[in-house]
Amino acid sequence: MEILTTLHGHNRWLIVIFALLAIVFLILNRKDSTEYKKSTKFFGSLYAYFLVFQFLIGLLLFFPKAQSLNWDMSVLRIQFEHATTMILAIGIAHSAAAWKKLEPSKRINNTLIAYVVSLGLIFLGVIRIGGLSLWTGS
């Protein structure tokens, strides 16, 4: 389990990097919004797929912990809040797939908003479960 915990902790930095890259490429793609560029799609896909990977690791960590605590909701409340926030972040990040048929400029703008909101939820979810120290390492 220690390996999964470490992987879950380190993977968050990859998610942040991919999210920021996806946002930067969306902003750059707004200047030429006649097409949704492959690089924009690539980093958006990395962001979305790594979110799912992170979620699966989180599930593998959550259930043994919950079982060891006899599913005591007074103790697990923060973990449930964290999981709920992260599920919302994943759903919002994946909503970009619903805009494939929109004209490129609308697709870019909608996806940019979704990724910024998703990343904001991720920051809030991590801060909620472990405080700001999980981001700063202190």
Question: Could you explain how this protein is built, in words?
Answer:
- By secondary structure, the protein is mainly alpha-helical.
- The chain has one domain.
- Helices cover 83% and strands 0% of the residues.
- It has helices spanning 2-31, 38-68, 73-94, 104-130, 133-136.
- Helix 2 packs antiparallel against helix 3.
- The mean pLDDT is 89.
Question: Secondary-structure blueprint of this entry?
Answer:
Blueprint: H1 2-31, H2 38-68, H3 73-94, H4 104-130, H5 133-136
Helix pairs in contact: 1-2, 1-4, 2-3, 3-4
Q: Determine the fraction of residues in helical runs and give it as a percent range.
A: over 70%
Q: Low-confidence stretches at least 5 residues in length (pLDDT < 50)?
A: none
Which structural category do the helix and sheet elements fall into? mainly alpha
The major pleated sheet works out as: none
**Number of helices, where a helix is a run of at least 4 consecutive DSSP H or I residues:** 5
The oligomeric state is: single chain
What's the gyration radius in Å?
17 Å
Q: Give the number of domains.
A: 1
The portion of residues forming beta strands comes to: under 5%
Distance between the termini: 23 Å
Tell me, rounded to a whole number, the average pLDDT: 89
Shape: elongated
> H/E series, N to C?
HHHHH
Q: What's the count of strands? A: 0
